[in-house]
C-alpha cells in the first residue's frame, strides 16, 4: 500500500494531551467574525475536534439518529449494483471527500476488490489523524487495496488530483454532509466540484430525504442529550483553544426542523445576559438573555430537489439508491 501524505496542508496539527493546543488563527478569525454579526453564528465545521468527533461517533449509534445506519444498509444491500455503475473494469481513481473512519466505504471497497475492479482509493479528510488511522486500518484489513491518502480541505485535494492524477474519477461524498451548507451552498459546492471533473466522471452523494418532521426533529434532539453535548462542545473548544471562559451551563442546545425550508437549524442559546472573555485573543463578546448562536444547518431533500440540484451543477442523475422507508438516498450523478 502506498502512503502519500501531501505536506501542503492547512490542517491544524494535533497536540499531545497536556500541552497547549496549537493556536489556530482561522478558528480565531471565524469566531470573531461570527460573533460580530447578528445573528451570531459559528460554522459547524468546528464541531469536529477530538472530543466532538467522539461525540459524533456516539450520535451515529443513537436510536433517534437514523441517517448513518440507513445509509449503511443501502450500501450493504445494493453494493453490487452500485459498483457496477462505476465501470469497474476500466481504471479509475475513487476519491472520497470526508472519509472519516471509512466504515461505510469499506463495504464498497471490499465489493470492488472482489469484483477485481481496477482502481485506487484516495481518501481526503481535513483531519490528518483520521487519514493516518484509516490508512493503517486499510493496509491490514484490505492489503490488496492501493490507498493514497490526502490531508487537507476538499478543494486543495481536487486541485492536487487534477494535476497529479489524470484519468477517470469516481467521487464519493457520503453521510449527507452535502446538507450542512448555508442556503445554496450545496449547489455552489457541486458546481465547484464539477469544474475538476471530466465527461463520464461520476459522483455518489448521500442525501437525507424529507420525511415525517417529528422523526427528523428527534434525530437532532435525542433523549439522552448526546447531540446537546455535541453542540455545547463548541463552547468547551473555544475555552480550550482560544482561552475563552464560557460556562456551558449558561447556554442551551436548541434545534428545530422547518418542513417548508427543509432544514434543521441548531443553536446555542444564552440563558442570561453575559460577557465572555477570550484571553488568548484579547477580545470580549456579550450575549443578551435568550440570544441564539446559530451553529448548524442540516438540509433535507426531496427527489425533485436532488435532480434539480444535479442538473443545475452540470450532472445528470444516473441512479438513485434508497431504503424501503425512503429515509435516505445515495445518488449517482454523471458529468454531462
Ligand atoms: C455529519 C453533517 C451528516 O447533519 O446530520 C448530527 C451532523 N449534527 N447531529 C448531520 C450532526 C447533529 C450530521 N452530518
UniProtKB/TrEMBL annotation:
One of its GO terms (molecular function) is L-histidine N(alpha)-methyltransferase activity. Keywords: Methyltransferase, Transferase. Pfam families: Methyltransf_33. InterPro entries: EgtD, EgtD_Methyltrsf_superfamily, MeTrfase_dom, MeTrfase_EgtD-like, SAM-dependent_MTases_sf. Its EC number is 2.1.1.44. The keyword Secreted does not apply. Residues 1-18 have a biased composition (Polar residues). Residues 27-334 form the Histidine-specific methyltransferase SAM-dependent domain. It comes from the Bacteria. Gene3D superfamilies: Vaccinia Virus protein VP39. The keyword Membrane does not apply. Residues 1-20 are annotated as: Disordered. One of its GO terms (biological process) is methylation. This is L-histidine N(Alpha)-methyltransferase. The gene is egtD.
Amino acid at each position: 500500500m502506498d502512503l502519500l501524505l501531501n505536506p501542503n496542508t492547512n490542517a491544524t496539527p494535533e497536540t499531545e494531551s497536556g500541552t497547549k493546543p496549537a493556536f489556530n488563527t482561522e478558528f480565531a478569525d471565524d469566531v470573531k467574525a461570527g460573533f460580530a454579526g447578528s445573528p451570531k453564528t459559528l460554522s459547524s465545521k468546528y464541531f469536529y475536534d477530538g472530543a466532538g468527533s467522539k461525540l459524533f461517533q456516539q450520535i451515529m449509534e443513537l436510536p433517534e439518529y437514523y441517517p448513518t445506519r440507513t445509509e449503511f444498509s443501502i450500501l450493504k444491500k445494493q453494493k453490487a449494483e452500485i459498483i457496477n455503475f462505476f465501470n469497474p473494469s476500466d481504471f479509475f481513481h475513487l476519491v472520497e471527500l470526508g472519509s472519516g473512519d471509512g466504515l461505510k466505504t469499506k463495504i464498497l471497497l471490499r465489493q470492488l476488490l472482489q469484483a477485481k475492479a481496477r482502481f485506487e482509493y484516495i481518501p481526503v479528510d481535513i483531519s490528518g489523524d483520521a487519514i493516518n488511522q484509516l490508512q493503517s486500518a486499510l493496509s491490514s484489513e484490505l492489503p490488496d487495496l492501493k490507498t493514497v491518502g490526502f490531508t487537507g480541505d476538499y478543494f486543495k485535494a481536487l486541485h492536487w488530483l487534477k494535476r497529479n492524477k489524470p484519468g477517470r474519477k469516481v467521487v464519493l461524498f457520503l453521510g449527507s454532509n452535502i446538507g450542512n451548507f448555508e442556503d445554496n451552498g450545496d449547489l455552489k459546492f457541486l458546481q465547484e466540484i464539477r469544474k475538476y471533473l471530466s465527461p463520464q466522471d461520476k459522483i455518489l452523494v448521500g442525501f437525507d430525504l424529507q420525511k415525517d418532521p417529528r422523526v427528523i426533529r428527534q434525530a437532532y434532539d435525542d433523549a439522552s442529550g448526546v447531540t446537546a453535548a455535541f453542540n455545547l462542545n463548541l463552547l468547551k473548544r473555544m475555552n480550550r483553544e482560544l482561552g475563552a471562559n464560557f460556562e456551558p451551563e449558561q447556554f442551551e442546545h436548541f434545534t428545530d426542523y422547518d418542513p417548508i425550508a427543509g432544514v434543521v437549524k441548531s443553536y446555542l442559546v444564552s440563558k442570561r445576559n453575559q460577557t465572555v472573555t477570550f484571553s488568548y485573543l484579547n477580545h470580549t463578546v456579550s450575549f443578551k438573555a435568550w440570544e441564539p448562536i446559530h451553529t448548524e444547518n442540516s438540509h433535507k431533500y426531496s427527489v425533485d430537489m436532488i435532480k434539480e440540484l444535479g442538473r443545475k451543477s452540470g450532472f445528470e442523475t444516473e441512479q438513485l439508491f434508497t431504503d424501503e422507508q425512503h429515509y435516505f438516498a445515495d445518488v449517482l450523478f454523471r458529468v454531462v
